[in-house]
Amino acid sequence: MLDVIVSVLTRAIIAGTPLLLATLGEIVTERAGILNLGMEGLMSTGAVTAFIVTFTTGNPWLGLLAAVLVGMLLSSLHGFVCIGLRANQVVSGLALTMLGLGISGLWGKPYIGRPLPIRMSRINIPGLSDMPVLGSILFNHNWYVYLSVLIGIVIWFVVKHTSWGITLRSVGENPRAAEAQGIAVNRVKHLAVLVGGGLAGMAGAFLSTAYSGSWNEGMVAGRGWIVIALTIFALWQPAMAFVGAYLFGGIFVLQYMLQPLGISPNILAMLPYLSTLVVLFIYGLTKSGQRRMNAPATLGEPYVRGER
Amino acid sequence: MQIDLIPRQRGSAALNLVILVGSLLAGLVAVSVVFALNGVNPAVAIFSIFRGSFGSWYGIKETVTKSIPLILIGSGLAMAYKAKFWNIGAESQLLVGAVFATFIGLRFGSLPGLVLVPMMFLAAFVGGALWGMVPAVLKIRFGINEVISTLMLNYIAAEFVKFLVVGPWKGATKGGYPYTDDMPAQAILRQLPYSRISPILLVLAVVGALVLGWLVYRSRFGYEIRVIGENTHAARYSGINFFRTSVLLMAISGGMAGLAGAGELLSIHHYLSYPETISAGYGFTAIIVAWLARLNPAYTIVSGLFFAGIIVGGDAIQISMGMPAATVNVFNGLILVFLIMGDFFISHQVRIRAGRSVHA
Amino acid sequence: MNRIQSLEMRGISKSFLDVHANQDIDLTIRSGEILGLLGENGAGKTTLMNILYGLYNPDDGEILVNGTPVRLKNPKDSMNAGIGMIHQHFMLVDKHSVLENIALGYEEAPFFFPQRALRRRIRELSAQYGLDVDPDKPVWELSAGEQQRVEIVKALSRNADLLIMDEPTSVLTPQEADELFDILRRMCSEGHSVILISHKLDEIMDICHRVMVLRKGRVTGEAPIEDVNKGRLAEMMIGRQIATAYAKADIEPGETVLEVKRLDVDSDRGLPAVRGLSLDVHASEILGIAGVSGNGQQELVETITGLRSPLAGTILMHGKPLDHADARQAHRLGITHVPEERIKYGIVPNLLLYENSVLKRHRDAPFSNWIQMNYGVIRTHAGNLVNGFQVDTPSVNVKVKNLSGGNIQKLILGREISGGPDLLIAAHPTYGLDVGATEYVRRQLIKLRDQGGAVLLVSEDLDELFMVCDRIAVMFEGHFMGEVDPESCTVEEIGLMMAGSVRQEA
Predict the structure, then answer these.
(1) What is the value of pTM for the model shown?
(2) Does residue B8 form part of some domain?
(3) DSSP assignment, residue B265?
(4) A25 neighbors A33 (Cβ within 8 angstroms)
(5) Three-class secondary structure of residue C276 per DSSP
(6) Residue-wise DSSP of C78-145
(7) CATH code of B344's domain
């Protein structure tokens, strides 16, 4: 019994890691007021890029770096279209998804079914990983898990406790107020988009070079859309992203665990999406809930300078 | 040097058409670049795509076949987007429509075809409509963004279908596969010889697109939709009822997708199976179909054929050139991006001049 | 940092497309001074101050601080020069705390934990000027007066020496306004200077040392406060010439068409906008509502036209009540409306002219029946409107956003009037229109009245009110200050009432 719990928790953390990374990225982007629905495509390109580079160079860290760069590059297109051309952010994000899925399919074709000789390594934290129970759950993961936690903490800290964070959040809530203080609103938005794209790429890199060690079209399997939902579930707060990501990671794992109990895995698989709707619904019932559920005030709206 | 973006005062149909074609061409150029960078000869690839879809009778027939669901769904989406209701849930509205139709098929399989088929289509419409109304209610009454709610409902419906086909509806005749039993024979739609085109469906799609076009541009309901989409303040000023209009709108949009679901069920697959097989990404491709049609439901007939051609052509080069299926996505994504960029030039003039900006 | 001993704006001009917002304006202010900037909406006050704050570049002219010319290319430059601005609509992030709002863009704040370092600074400033703010409260929980204090602290923390305040008391209660003035006086005694934009004469007389009046983009007067009185100021603000009235049919007002009793309405921010207001409009009569924008007229009009729900009071149209916000019911009762922001509310810019010609009436026969729109009938109707109301357009098939402002207004007016309505509510109908269109609109209002219609005209333009109305009620801070007869009232009298200083028994 204990073994089962340990196994589930461990795997939940692993499964939640890509969700965590990408959700953190989307939170940063959305708090600057930009909606990026291209996550699925960005994660996919990240995955294929990391796989190819790792496969070719034998170094998963280079793969990670390449994935981040490609993610940033691709998302900059979305930034240009949405910020520079003030286009419809919903449609642009969908286009980005299609583009990302397409490009990754194209690039990945020669690599389908070829296993990665070297994957991102696991580390055993000396001493701690020998602890009973907790040792396996927490201290025996691969680098991505710890990196994601570290990045999460950094982002949480920056958003909440630094002047950059105040600037970012204000740009998304009231860009005029930011502009009146001399802040270059569009530049902040562009940067936020890049951060989101980079983290999405990293999430994809995890999937291909640590989680599965292979490449397949469609391996992102809808995680990108879950990230969009998780961003709302987390109420756009980095700290809550941890909760949401590991929770939903757990649901992915539980899906298979509970199967022998006769609960249909499909009903279980609905859980992440149902819970998002339920949470939003509950938030929507009360006035104070609606206020908390409020996305950054200008999310999705193109910003035009200086007009009244 | 200063780049000024000035909202355009006058537009013209000719200018719009030029920009539209220009966007498509720019998209094609971009696609060529992507192909070239991947070691694929772009000219060959693009030529093969179009030859695959329009260059042979087989190709044309397949294109028409695949255009039917695109037209059905696309016209419904065009109408919804006209009101700026971002329905991303057509995949699931299609599925729920198929589910409702399957239910009728499994339960009332003894009825004669003349009764059964209309019943199934009606059920499909109702199913899709109900599933489409949910996000409308969630938006107006609870303030839940329709992009999120329709996306979530996509997954919920997909899982529900999976549940049905591996569980309660698993067919006895299907050798343990996650398929339902075949739909009653009298309900299967006849197809044109040597093709997979069902004339009933084709007529339904074309008529449906035209009807929706009529609705949007000639009916009172359509008038209200367009006012809501273009200026919500004026819509309030003029006393339009947001709730009723949005719910009705999504009922129709979802219902059309539901019809597509019934069509796929009764014409192509003949039994309900895994969601990806049934919906085949039509719900997403239809978004671009609607956008390319400039949100005019009637034009989706043309844009639907165009994109069906891309899908079929994409399948073709998958076989002939070994390109992965996802290549079509590159096409779709890039064209959509350039269409959006083209939209910008339709509504803005770009002037480059020396000097200071208007703003500080 | 050097303090601002004197600041001068010389020859400032600024145009937006063809609107001359500022024309050749000179302004001087010295340390310790409160300068009042007086004028109606659209006079150019906010534009001028936005230039000073670096949000706009002037087309012409220069700005000198302590005798040295400065280039203010953005708000940062202005802040570095010691200029701070508090806008009429606060530039605060509602969801954030006071601390975070003050920390926004604050360059001297440390990167890590900026909030903490600011606490002390805020406490200092609060003590120095009596500005009580709770640093940890989220802004949306604060009252308007408290929010304003946050804005002031924010500006002062940037070492603002000159403070520009745009209509600061428009959101304050009288007590809060008094508190604000105490704070301003204290600041001036410490060497700060203030430019106070206002349209309220009492305020200007109360606190300013000098006053400058703008009208239609130009300076129409400037003097130390001892040298002027409210009457003079009113004249300078509003202008002297009153054109002769238009010819009106000699009819007695008929039965009561619209009755409003003790109406209470709140604004979007939850502040009282209309309080205890009663009025009635009769057939064959034009009742004007005078007053500077922002005194509740918008909320009043929205309530009568069914776009806003009142807190209390009744509205009766031919004796039938309009119970709540239901624009369609208002329409059915026979209330028509030419809205204040014509492009935002009155038309759908991207739709065609003939489609706009039946906005609101689109559900009525003969324009539609059951499900179908009768575009043939609608096109004819649009053609009639275009001809009957002199709308200059190549055809009825153009997108309505391509028409000029004047023609859009004529279209809207025609649309509302053409049904021969019982009641027409026109809100600032000639704002921003050229002379010809203005003339035309006014004549149409009179024509409607002569034919038996009732008209409620809300306007800031006194000329217009005097020329067109049979009676004029003056609205200030949500209630009527009194009613005047345009034939016998003087500009001075009505100007004073508009600025809140005299109240007649209604």
Answers:
(1) 0.82
(2) no
(3) I
(4) no
(5) strand
(6) HHHTTEEEE-SS----TTSBHHHHHHTT-TTS-SBSHHHHHHHHHHHHHHHHT----TTSBGGGS-HH
(7) 1.10.3470
CB < 8 Å to B359, chain A: 305-306
Residue B179 covered by a domain: yes
Q: Is C42 helix (H, G, I), strand (E, B) or coil?
A: coil
Asked if residue B28 belongs to a domain, the reply is no
**Domains contained in chain A, CATH given:** 2-293 (1.10.3470)
Q: Using CA atoms, how far apart are residues B235 and C359, in angstroms rounded to an integer?
A: 9
Identify whether the C-beta of residue A238 lies closer than 8 Å to the C-beta of residue A27: yes
| Minimum Cα–Cα distance from B164: chain A residue | A266
- The complex scores an ipTM of 0.83
**C-alpha separations of C292 from B76, C49, C279, C457 in Å:** 48, 20, 18, 13
Secondary structure (DSSP) of C331-374 = HHTTEEEE-SSIIIII--TTSBHHHHTTTTTTTSTTTEETTEE-
In chain C, the domains with their CATH numbers are: 6-238 (3.40.50.300), 256-498 (3.40.50.300)
For chains A and B, CB pairs below 8 A equal 152
Residues whose CB is less than 8 angstroms from the CB of residue A94 and which lie 6 or more positions away in sequence, other chains included: A37, A38, B88, B284, B287, B336
C-alpha distance across the termini of chain A, in Å: 64
Contact in structure between C377 and C319 (CB atoms under 8 Å): no
SS (H, E, C) A82-99: HHHCCCCHHHHHHHHHHH
Q: Does C56 touch chain A (CB under 8 A)?
A: yes
Tokens 């930009």 sit on residue: A34
CA-based angle B360:C6:C9, to the nearest 5? 40
Query: Does B216 contact C at CB distance below 8 Å?
Result: no
Strand C471-476 and strand C285-290: pairing?
Answer: parallel
Residue spans of alpha helices (H) in A32-122: 39-57, 60-79, 89-108
**Per-residue pLDDT tens digits of chain A, which is 308 residues long:** 777 788 888 889 999 999 999 999 999 999 999 999 999 999 999 999 999 999 999 888 999 999 999 999 999 999 999 998 888 898 899 899 989 998 898 888 888 888 888 787 777 777 676 667 677 677 778 888 999 999 999 999 999 988 899 999 999 999 989 988 888 999 999 999 999 999 999 999 999 998 888 898 878 887 898 898 888 888 899 999 999 899 888 877 877 677 777 777 788 778 778 877 887 787 777 655 555 556 788 888 788 775 43
Does some domain include residue B127? yes
B148 touching chain A per CB within 8 A: yes
Element housing C479 (H / E): strand C479-484
Beta bridge partners of C272: C266
Range of the domain at B310: 66-348
Q: How many domains does chain B have?
A: 1
| Dihedral over Cα of B282, B285, B291, B292: its sign | negative
Instruction: List, as ranges, residues 55-94 from B with C-beta within 8 Å of A.
Output: 86, 88
The beta-carbon neighbor of A178 closest among C74, C87, C104 is C104
To probe the interface with C, which of A166, A188, A235 has the most C CB atoms within 10 Å? A166
CA distance A125 to A135: 9
CA dihedral in degrees (C362, C363, C368, C373; nearest 10)?
50
Residues C286 and C485: their CA atoms lie apart, in Å, by 12
Asked whether the beta carbons of B339 and B30 are under 8 A apart, the reply is: no
Residue A113: what residue type? G
d(C-alpha B67, C-alpha B195), whole Å: 14
Instruction: Name C30's bridge partners.
Output: C6
Interatomic CA distance for residues A238 and A95, integer angstroms: 27
